[in-house]
């Protein structure tokens, strides 16, 4: 644990995990330095469209499913509303945490407003034309919003946490999909090299999901370890994995296939796993953390920001 509260940057590649390959060297470098693992999601509701899936899985990451459920019909039907949710905002839930969401998805932006996020678009940060590479300019602007300027940490910052949502196939002013996610991670790692002030205060999380998943591509990407756990006679004798439990009771909706891949890094704060590549197979074989439910993700990050009690304590 750091001696001062961290400031968090979350890069969420929605649907980008399937496009990872050996050329994404910066993502692999991050994984080799980081604490890695998986975030387990619930099963898809029947007849869910792609827009609703994007909102629902994002809501899981922020433990804001109640807010999503209040407006599920709205998101399923593509009708936007600017009405505030009756659900407590992130600031109310996490000790005044100042949070921002950067996305090009209009429905996700609407949902962010409902749960108290300050919502921005990439154009708000990098403009339409500029001389620098997009990844360099965006990294610089993100760090400024978190109170990091010219390698120094300012006493105050505009935000405690920024979440950048990048969806598969979305044109984002030049920041497009996995290639640019890789470039952005490389720029951030360069800015937060060990020994700099940034490295000890920036908590970086990179999440990569599989997006919409068809039934025939689940088997190779499964977290389940008990081959006979569905056998009605033998299932009581298999111990429950912790991510399938909540409050001492089994969760009734856990999807074991196609989880979100996550790598988290903060110099001298996060654990280093024995991982070499940012991939499902390497994570499953070599990480120590393995799996947590997706709705616990923000609680763990908020702890690093001194905005929540220790998760699991």
Report on the architecture of this protein.
It is built from 12 helices and 12 strands. The chain has 313 residues and is α/β, with parallel strands linked by helices. An 8-stranded mixed β-sheet has the order 4-3-7-1-8-11-2-12, sandwiched between helices. The protein has a two-stranded antiparallel ribbon with strand order 5-6. A two-stranded antiparallel ribbon has the order 9-10. Helix 1 packs across helix 9. The model is unreliable at 171-175 (pLDDT under 50).
The helix-and-strand class reads alpha/beta
Number of helices: 12
Helix content: 25-40%
Overall pLDDT metric: 84
* Total strand segments: 12
Low-pLDDT regions: 171-175
Keywords:
313 residues; 12 helices; two-stranded antiparallel ribbon; eight-stranded mixed β-sheet; globular; 31% helix; alpha/beta
Question: What is the element layout, followed by pairings?
Answer:
Blueprint: E1 7-14, H1 25-33, E2 35-41, H2 50-61, H3 65-70, H4 72-77, H5 90-93, E3 99-102, H6 106-114, E4 118-120, H7 122-126, H8 134-145, E5 148-149, E6 152-153, E7 161-167, H9 177-191, H10 197-201, E8 202-208, E9 245-246, E10 249-250, E11 255-265, H11 280-286, E12 291-293, H12 297-304
Parallel strand pairs: 1-7, 1-8, 2-12, 3-4, 3-7
Antiparallel strand pairs: 2-11, 5-6, 8-11, 9-10
Helix pairs in contact: 1-9, 8-9
TL;DR?
This protein has helices spanning 25-33, 50-61, 65-70, 72-77, 90-93, 106-114, 122-126, 134-145, 177-191, 197-201, 280-286, 297-304; strands spanning 7-14, 35-41, 99-102, 118-120, 148-149, 152-153, 161-167, 202-208, 245-246, 249-250, 255-265, 291-293. It is of the alpha/beta class.
């Amino acid at each position: 644990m750091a001696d001062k509260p961290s400031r968090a940057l979350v890069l969420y590649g929605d649907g980008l995990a399937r496009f990872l390959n050996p050329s994404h060297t910066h993502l692999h470098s991050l994984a080799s330095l980081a604490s890695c693992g998986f975030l387990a999601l619930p099963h898809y509701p029947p007849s869910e469209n792609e827009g609703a899936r994007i909102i629902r899985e994002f809501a899981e990451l922020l433990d804001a499913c109640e807010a999503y459920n209040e407006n599920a019909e709205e998101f399923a039907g593509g009708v936007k509303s600017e009405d505030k949710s009756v659900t407590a905002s992130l600031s109310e839930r996490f000790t005044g945490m100042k949070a921002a969401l950067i996305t090009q998805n209009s429905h996700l932006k609407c949902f962010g407003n409902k749960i108290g996020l300050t919502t921005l678009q990439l154009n708000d940060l990098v403009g339409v034309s500029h001389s620098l590479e997009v990844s360099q300019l965006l990294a610089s602007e993100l760090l400024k919003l978190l109170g990091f300027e010219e390698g120094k940490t300012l006493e105050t910052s505009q935000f405690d946490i920024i979440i950048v949502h990048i969806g598969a196939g979305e044109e984002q002013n030049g920041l497009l999909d996995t290639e640019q996610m890789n470039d952005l991670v490389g720029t951030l790692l360069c800015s937060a090299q060990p020994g700099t002030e940034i490295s000890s205060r920036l908590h970086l999380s990179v999440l990569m999901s599989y997006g919409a998943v068809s039934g025939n591509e689940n088997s190779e990407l499964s977290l389940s370890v008990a081959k006979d756990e569905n056998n009605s006679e033998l299932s009581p004798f298999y111990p429950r994995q912790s991510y399938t439990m909540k409050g001492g009771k089994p969760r009734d909706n856990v999807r074991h296939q196609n989880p979100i891949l996550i790598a988290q890094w903060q110099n001298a704060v996060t654990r280093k796993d024995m991982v070499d590549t940012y991939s499902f197979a390497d994570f499953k074989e070599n990480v120590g953390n393995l799996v947590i439910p997706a709705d616990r993700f923000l609680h763990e990050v908020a702890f690093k920001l001194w905005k929540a009690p220790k998760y699991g304590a």
